[in-house]
Amino acid sequence: MKKFLLTALVMTYAVFTMSIAKAELSISGYQEFYGVSVDQSTAAGLSTATNTHEARSGLSNGRFTRIIATGSSTLDNGIEVTGVYAISKDGTASGDTDTNSVAVNENGLYFSGGFGSLGIGNIFSAGTMVHNRGTTMIPTAEPDNNAYGFYPVAGGATGGYGAFDEAGYAMDGMKIRFDSNVYEGFSGSISYESCMAKDTGNASAANCNSGTIADYHDVIDFGIKYAGSFEGVDMSVTYGHTTGNTQISAGVIYNDYEADTYSISVGVAGLNLIYRSLDAGDSGQAITTANDGNQTGTTAAVTYSIGNFTVGYAAINTEIDYSTNTSTSTMEENIFGIGYNLGGGVLLEASHGSKEEVDGSDSLKDTEADVSILKISFGF
């Protein structure tokens, strides 16, 4: 037994030292915890004063707690190799699945050098990497972290309310992505995803025709960015174009996905502003209806940081037309945030805002809610 244990220890040491010689390994991670309070007056088009209503407020362990392992090495030809594997608390196949299919469940392999970077795996899309996101900008990172989607009782309109992010944003479907190096302030990125149904929330051999219309095929996402500094003013401008093919569902043919995204970011002396616009037209709508679509989404956000304090405000608006509705369905969010950096990777943040959704079928509010969030997070 002692000889067996000794042999096992020697073999383990040998494997470990060989691994070290081949690649460097680092471990990082992130934890978050919430206190959420929702004051909702309208849910699913009904007054909460006279109808039974869900109670979702309270303490929460958040969505994005995860451990990240990063290995790096260099090929004989000098090309750098990086492997990233993340284990997300909410990325399981059962139980708490808040981040199923989200790219915090990253499993990617990257090759980089003078040509740029080429990645493959469950990784971010090109647009996710390129565009300025005011939705992640203010303290608590709302509405990107989507507490305003999970905690109020929302939805109900036929055809939805539109979107403020392009298809595939922050999702972890299998992709190939190329990122260029920066040349005179210009850089670009392009990604290809064969089937949006092939993500970490589904089996590797998932049937690409078994998803929803929004599970597009052959998604190509392209983005270009210019960033520079002019007399103390930092600025970046982006443009992106995203395309994808739809499937035929129950004999109905739908429009393919096609969207344009523009964004601009300006920063000076602790003040940062971002504006982003999405136009997805009639993407994903039945081709037999002429007045469907007109999907647009805008994001405007501003933050000001001084010392360890940051304050911010974000305004998000979306809209979409649907054939059976008499008017446009809309969604509006207005969120204020404040944060304090305690040091050592710990942030204490709070935000308060409102969410309204209007159903184009009757022009009445489906959702009217105020949301307050207190959040503590630790990045290590």
Can you tell me about this structure?
This protein is mainly β and 380 residues long. The chain has one domain: Porin. Helix content is 8%, strand content 51%. The protein has helices spanning 2-22, 126-130, 147-150, and strands at 24-43, 46-47, 58-60, 66-74, 80-88, 107-113, 116-122, 174-179, 186-195, 217-230, 233-245, 257-268, 271-281, 293-306, 309-321, 329-343, 346-359, 364-379. A 16-stranded antiparallel barrel has the order 1-4-5-6-7-8-9-10-11-12-13-14-15-16-17-18. It is globular, with a radius of gyration of 23 Å. Mean pLDDT is 89; it is low at 1-21.
Task: Spell out the key features of this protein.
single chain; about 375 residues; mainly beta; Porin; 16-stranded antiparallel barrel; 3 helices; 18 strands; globular; disordered N terminus
Outline:
globular
Number of strands: 18
CATH architecture: Beta Barrel
- Mean pLDDT, as a whole number? 89
Number of domains: 1
* Topology as a string of helices (H) and strands (E): HEEEEEEEHHEEEEEEEEEEE
Q: Could you tell me the CATH topology label.
A: Porin
What structural category do the secondary elements indicate? mainly beta
Q: Span from first to last CA? A: 40 Å
Rg value? 23 Å
The level-1 CATH class? Mainly Beta
In which range does the helix fraction lie? under 10%
Biggest β-sheet: count, sense, barrel?
Answer: 16 strands, antiparallel, barrel
Task: Determine the number of helices (DSSP H or I, runs of at least 4 residues).
Answer: 3
Strand content: over 45%
Reading side by side through the largest sheet, how are the strands ordered? 1-4-5-6-7-8-9-10-11-12-13-14-15-16-17-18
